[in-house]
Amino acid sequence: MAHNPMPPHTGGKLKPSSAFKERFRTTGTGKIKYQRAGHVHKRFNKSNRQRRELGQPKIMHSTYAKILKKLGFVSRFY
Description:
- This protein is of the alpha+beta class.
- It has helices at residues 18-23, 48-54, 62-71, and strands at residues 24-26, 32-35, 57-59.
- It has a domain at 18-71: Factor Xa Inhibitor, CATH 4.10.410.60.
- InterPro entries: Ribosomal_bL35 (IPR001706), Ribosomal_bL35-like (IPR021137), Ribosomal_bL35_sf (IPR037229).
- Belongs to the bacterial ribosomal protein bL35 family.
């Protein structure tokens, strides 16, 4: 019988990351809203339409939203 050097996990809660709380918000229907990257950096290389669309918040795909909700990384206040 092999000896396991790691002690068993005794439990505890996973604390939500402050960075995630600032980057993601939940809507009233439970969807996750986030701000798209690339709106500020190198603006002169982007078209007006691209800058306008990057400035609008976007709803996260449901597959990724499910993972984020399971981890508890979403702020419930916005």
